[in-house]
Task: inverse folding
């Protein structure tokens, strides 16, 4: 069996402008009746540009960059959520991604039923999810509401349940998009403890964050992205300095 590894070779990723144009009837009407020829032109977004990265077993990697630099796109491309436009991505090992916690819920189904549904989306078997059900319910602290439809839950209750499910199913490779906020202060303490436990158990960690303190504490290697391009790949301390330099330059423009 191959050791856990993430390898990107000359990866490009575009968002087509058609995905952003005329999303609604009102937007279409606005374009049709706009005075003159000053219609808004939306260009394709080149989210990743010729990115090559090799991450091996045991590595803890921080992704740094300004908003829109490509950090979340990088993670979602590695997770297989975004199809790339060019190049190649190889992932060896069982991957667990912690972002988009709200995905995978059926609003008319109960919390208990959604444990099974979301578990299946995460690649777990029905037997495995049933075995973890009591643990998930206890961690989410939903009490009798676990047997109520998801559509009756508050936003905080949904996040707690989604977090409990997602972090119960482990993996060799852990992708994190920021350190996740998940409800009230008491739950946040338990959530952070669980995240740190997952990090310790994972063979590879890739964490995207603006919190340089967390990155310094958790990661040894840093990757700086800007405009979809790879600017720096090396020790986390130097990566943080490069990130600060780029941020200052952009602020002076």
Result:
């Amino acid at each position: 069996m191959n050791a856990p590894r993430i390898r990107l070779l000359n990866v490009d990723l575009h968002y087509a402008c058609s995905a952003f144009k005329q999303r609604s009837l009102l937007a279409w009407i606005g374009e049709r009746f706009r005075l003159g020829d000053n219609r808004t032109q939306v260009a394709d977004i080149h989210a990743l540009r010729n990115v090559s990265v090799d991450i091996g077993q045991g590595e803890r990697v921080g992704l740094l960059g300004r908003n829109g630099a490509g950090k979340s796109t990088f993670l979602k491309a590695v997770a297989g959520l975004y199809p790339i436009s060019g190049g190649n991505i190889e992932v060896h090992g069982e991957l667990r991604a912690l972002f988009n916690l709200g995905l995978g819920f059926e609003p008319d189904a109960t919390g208990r039923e959604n444990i099974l549904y979301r578990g299946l989306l995460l690649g777990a078997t029905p037997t495995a999810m049933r075995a973890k059900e009591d643990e998930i319910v206890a961690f989410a602290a939903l009490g009798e509401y676990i047997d109520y439809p998801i559509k009756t839950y508050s936003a905080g209750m949904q996040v707690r349940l989604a977090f409990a499910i997602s972090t119960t199913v482990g993996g060799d490779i852990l992708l994190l998009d920021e350190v996740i906020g998940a409800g009230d202060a008491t739950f946040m303490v338990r959530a952070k403890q669980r995240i740190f436990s997952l990090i310790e158990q994972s063979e590879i960690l890739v964490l995207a964050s603006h919190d340089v303190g967390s990155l310094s504490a958790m990661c040894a290697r840093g990757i700086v992205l800007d405009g979809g391009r790879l600017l720096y790949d090396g020790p986390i301390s130097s990566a943080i300095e490069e990130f600060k330099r780029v941020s200052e330059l952009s602020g002076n423009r």
Summary: Residues 33 and 132 are 56 Å apart (CA to CA).
